[in-house]
Amino acid sequence: MISVRSVNLSFHHNGVRLPVLKDISFELGAEDSCAIIGPSGCGKTSLLFLLNGLLQPDSGAITITGAPRCGTILQNFGLFPWKSVVQNIALGLSLRREPADTAGKRVKGLLEEMELTGFENHFPGQLSGGMQQRVALARALAIDPEILYMDEPLSSLDALTRERLQNLILHIGRTKRITTVLVTHSIEEAVFLGRRIILLSHRPGQIVRILDNPDAGSRDFRTSESFFRQCSTLRATLARETDESEA
Ligand SMILES: Nc1ncnc2c1ncn2[C@@H]1O[C@H](COP(=O)(O)OP(=O)(O)OP(=O)(O)O)[C@@H](O)[C@H]1O
Question: Does the keyword Nucleus apply (predicted)?
């Protein structure tokens, strides 16, 4: 469904070309769940932006079959502080000029699903981090996406809220049959949510390894032996990669 072939990306800054991603190739199938992890500044967000079309590669090709509907959750939730919960959730629907009655029903359903009923007219600044994240999730889900891109969606949350929302993302991905692509700094989160884990090197980011993680996909996985084993493998690979780049 998503095919990335020999993709290179660089930015130009003050007349200097800064290579950011180098020779990236991978494929994801429908309903796959993928986590992208790597050192700070290695190009994870840039890769996500290439996938969702916000950036174009210098060379190589990204092919996504079937023109699927895509939702994106940006770092720090990306909510509009001056818009209410309802207005934030309805944003994608308004942009698509969805009739008010269908949009209203959809938003009401999502408010219930994300346990936000009663907070319709609150502004993001009046909500906890976990609630803001549920608003961001509701907004991304409002357009009924087939692919959901998430850029460190849970990084600013406390441990338990983070686990609850990881469970929610897992549940949503499975029940709504959405392909999910998640950028994260957390080894545990990558292993819990990614059936395929793409590990990038230091900038310019190259794929060091794609780890198959077929047991991801159930809540119980978090406490299983296989989970801890996969976390150790990923941690060791990440540490090795960081050491080599700093040597
Ligand atoms: N628009 C831009 N113009 C110039 N340089 C940029 C631009 N966007 C990103 N960069 C640089 O490209 C590199 C990769 O950035 P990116 O945000 O993709 O990395 P990241 O792995 O997501 O980082 P982090 O883990 O810190 O969030 C960084 O060095 C960043 O400073």
Answer: no
